[in-house]
Structures are given as structure tokens and as C-alpha cells.
């Protein structure tokens, strides 16, 4: 692997000052969070039953949402990268909509689609007795809705960058398209899938707007860490909100550290 040479020399002041300002702008709020953390009572607050319950639920739902995204997102990314079909550009644009859609609007859209009187939810309720809103399964659906684009974009980029000669060689040797996909394509893009899965999981872990709109905020059932931060803040317990935020910050930093090598390996 080769890396681009770093250019040294005098940095123009017109670039240096805005760059430092941008760095301070990003780091200062995190420094404020660490400064305000009640370190003396941190162990007791971290082991409080409501905090532990919210953390467990967050980890569970984020993991299930990531699994759902992997099942749906990897084939979707392959379709976008390998198959030329009418409307592919439109499909790609629709996939990225949750990235720019306000999360609360996403929650309302989920209610209109999967609510008891929704487009599909009414049929699920009347036929199978399945109701997703305001349940733990609803949290998983809301998190998957906002996190799926991260996985699809990452995996599609990996597929487009992969050497297709291996797939062509497998097809020449008589391998079916499914065998080629499972034995050649997936191993080729495994790092991209892993990176997309990690980003997907991190996005699901921090999801707030769609979750509170579609699944509500019930402790032990739908209250994840971001919702617990919101409720704790609303109750006037700033120290408690800071501690919960610190947990999410620690998880985010861990995710960034895990992806560091991959990002540095990019162009």
C-alpha cells in the first residue's frame, strides 16, 4: 500500500485560522461535556437501574437493527452496483432520503406506513395481530429506517471499487450467480460490509427523532439511551443527562477508533 506524500512548508494564515477554528468548533462542546461530568458520582450513576436498562435496550435494538440492515442492505447495494435496471438513479436517490429527512418526519412516515391504521400496518394488525408502534420491535424498525442508507452507500462503494475480474473468472468456470456472490463477491467486499455495519450500528445507537415518534418513550420497553438523555434533561437532572451523554460519546469514540485504519487507507 502506498500513501500520498505529505507536503510541508509554510501554511497560509488564511487557511490555518479557519482550520483551527473548525477544529475548536467541533472539539469545544465535547470538552464542555467532559468538564461538566460529575466524576465523583459517576460509578453510582452508571450503575443506576434505569441507566442500565436503557443501555441494554439500546445495545439490543441497535444490534437487531444492524442485522436487519445487513439482510436487506447488502442485496440492495449489490443490485445498485451490479445490475443496470430502469429507475436505478431514482432508487439510489430514494435510498438516501432518510439521510436528509428530519428524523421526526421519518417517524411520522413510519406511523403512516406501519401504524395500526397505516398503509401496511392495518393489514398486519387485522391479519396477524402484529402491531409495531410503541413496541421494542418498533424501536428496531425506526433505527433500521434511519441507519440503512449508511450501510447501502458503504457496501455499494465497496462493490464498485472491487475488481470484477474475479467474478468474471468464476462465471467462466461455470459458477452460478448466487455461488459467485457468496464465494467471490462477499469475501471481496467484506471490509466494506464491516465498515458499513459499524456505521449503521452507531447511527442506530444514536437515533432519537424517529424512535420517539414511532415507538414512544416507555422505560424498559422503548426508552433507549438518547431518549433517556432527553427525559433526564427535561426532568432538570443535568448531571444525569451528562452521564448518559458521556456513555454515548464513549461508544462513538470507540467506533471511530475501530474505523481509523480503514479511513487512513483511503485515497
UniProtKB/TrEMBL annotation:
Any Gene Ontology CC annotation: plasma membrane
Entry membrane topology: Multi-pass membrane protein
SUPFAM superfamilies: MetI-like
Keyword Transport found: yes
Cellular compartment(s): Cell membrane; Membrane
Pfam families: BPD_transp_1
Annotated GO MF terms: ABC-type sulfate transporter activity; molybdate ion transmembrane transporter activity
Domain named ABC transmembrane type-1: residues: 55-257
Bilayer-spanning residue ranges: 12-35, 55-81, 93-114, 134-155, 241-259
Keyword Cell membrane annotated: yes
Keywords from the UniProt entry: Cell membrane, Membrane, Molybdenum, Sulfate transport, Transmembrane, Transmembrane helix, Transport
Coiled coil: none
Superkingdom: Bacteria
UniProt family annotation: Belongs to the binding-protein-dependent transport system permease family. CysTW subfamily.
PANTHER family given in the database record: SULFATE TRANSPORT SYSTEM PERMEASE PROTEIN, SULFATE TRANSPORT SYSTEM PERMEASE PROTEIN CYST
Subunit structure: The complex is composed of two ATP-binding proteins (CysA), two transmembrane proteins (CysT and CysW) and a solute-binding protein (CysP).
Function description: Part of the binding-protein-dependent transport system for molybdenum; probably responsible for the translocation of the substrate across the membrane. Part of the ABC transporter complex CysAWTP (TC 3.A.1.6.1) involved in sulfate/thiosulfate import. Probably responsible for the translocation of the substrate across the membrane.
Protein name per UniProt: Molybdenum transport system permease
Organism: Actinoplanes teichomyceticus
Amino acid at each position: 500500500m502506498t500513501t500520498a506524500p505529505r507536503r510541508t512548508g509554510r501554511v497560509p494564515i488564511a487557511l490555518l485560522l479557519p482550520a483551527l477554528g473548525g477544529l475548536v468548533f467541533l472539539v469545544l462542546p465535547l470538552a464542555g461535556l467532559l468538564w461538566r461530568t460529575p466524576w465523583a458520582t459517576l460509578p453510582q450513576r452508571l450503575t443506576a437501574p434505569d441507566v442500565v436498562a436503557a443501555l441494554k435496550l439500546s445495545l439490543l435494538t441497535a444490534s437487531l437493527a444492524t442485522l436487519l440492515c445487513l439482510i436487506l442492505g447488502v442485496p440492495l447495494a449489490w443490485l445498485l452496483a451490479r445490475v443496470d435496471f430502469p429507475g436505478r438513479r431514482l432508487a439510489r436517490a430514494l435510498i438516501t432520503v432518510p439521510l436528509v429527512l428530519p428524523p421526526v418526519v421519518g417517524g411520522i412516515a413510519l406511523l403512516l406506513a406501519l401504524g395500526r391504521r397505516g398503509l401496511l400496518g392495518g393489514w398486519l394488525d387485522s391479519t396477524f395481530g402484529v402491531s409495531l408502534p410503541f413496541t421494542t420491535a418498533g424501536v428496531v424498525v425506526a433505527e433500521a429506517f434511519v441507519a440503512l442508507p449508511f450501510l447501502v452507500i458503504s457496501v455499494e462503494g465497496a462493490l464498485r471499487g472491487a475488481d470484477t475480474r474475479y467474478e468474471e473468472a468464476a462465471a467462466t468456470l461455470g459458477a452460478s450467480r448466487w455461488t459467485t456472490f457468496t464465494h467471490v463477491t462477499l469475501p471481496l467486499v467484506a471490509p466494506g460490509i464491516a465498515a458499513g455495519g459499524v456505521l449503521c450500528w452507531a447511527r442506530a445507537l444514536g437515533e432519537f427523532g424517529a424512535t420517539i415518534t414511532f415507538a414512544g418513550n416507555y422505560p424498559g420497553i422503548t426508552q433507549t439511551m438518547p431518549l433517556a438523555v432527553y427525559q433526564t434533561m427535561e426532568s432538570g437532572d443535568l448531571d444525569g443527562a451528562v452521564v448518559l451523554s458521556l456513555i454515548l460519546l464513549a461508544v462513538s469514540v470507540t467506533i471511530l477508533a475501530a474505523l481509523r485504519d480503514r479511513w487512513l487507507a483511503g485515497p
